[in-house]
Amino acid sequence: MNVQTRPDPFTLRRRNPSGGTAPLTQWGFRNETDRLTDVLLGDPAYLRHMATSSLSRKHLRESPCNIQLAQAQHKELRAAYESFGVKVHTAPPEPELPMQVYTRDSSVMTPYGAVITAMANWWRRGENYAAIRHYEQLGIPIYDMVTAGTFEGGDFNVIEEGCVLIGCGGARTQEEGARQVASWFEAEGWEVRLAFIDEYYVHIDLMVVPVAPKLTAVCLACTEPGIVDWLKAKGHEIIDVPFQDTMALGCNFMSLGGERIIAPKSSPTLVGQLKARGFEVAVVDTAEISKTGGGIHCMAQALRREP
Ligand SMILES: NC(=O)NCCC[C@H](N)C(=O)O
Prior knowledge:
GO molecular function: arginine deiminase activity
Largest sheet: 3 strands, mixed
Helix content: 25-40%
Number of strands: 15
Protein name: arginine deiminase
Pathway: Amino-acid degradation; L-arginine degradation via ADI pathway; carbamoyl phosphate from L-arginine: step 1/2
Region (Disordered): 1-25
Distance between the termini: 22 Å
Bound molecules: citrulline
CATH class: Alpha Beta
């Protein structure tokens, strides 16, 4: 085995404080639109419907999640990834962790290794520790861990290579955490933009998600115009997802690269737009799971994409 292909050793902090951290050789990605080969999904074995946001609270009041149905929907979601040849990795579920299915949040993958985030709510903090153990098991090195306030992975949105949009709603990702992560990626030479959002929306990946190179889905009704102008100035075309669909997690889908998308049934406008552009779309019904506050993008973490 030559030096180039030797796996990067597992470590708890790979980040070079002055920047210039070497990208991983076997894991990670350049952007969120290249071909997905490995994904991190949760196991909904211990999923519980809790009042974690305005959205999940509303469903809890009106028609609480049928957990068995949600688990069956998750199985379909997993099968969709597998049908596209994506390798699914799953951490052992823990009964103390009711939201472990939302793998987007407790860590975020980057070209340099995984960032261990700092969950805002006490019932999700254990997910950060479970993520460290799982990355060690997978042999994926950790880039760094957030120590300045809270930071949740749904707020780390890689728009294109070397460019990240960081959501900051205060209740989940605090400004302190956002600025710490921003400083790391600025040192690596990235462009970083902070998006201050209302905590009602929970994370930025509720309203802005990359589809393909220079093509991004955005809920124009709730995304600050400055962010939309910034995307357009980069040459991004926008697919507008209606507000009502967005509130049903309709703008929260996963790009598999190669013009293939896994999207929720709750998003007819987006699905129609994608099909009209020639994308292969696997439409999965995730409505029951989404009553607990997250969607397809929140339930996935890209571990490896190949250019
Ligand atoms: N990235 C995301 O938007 N994740 C959704 C998390 C939902 C979960 N019920 C929570 O409120 O933490």
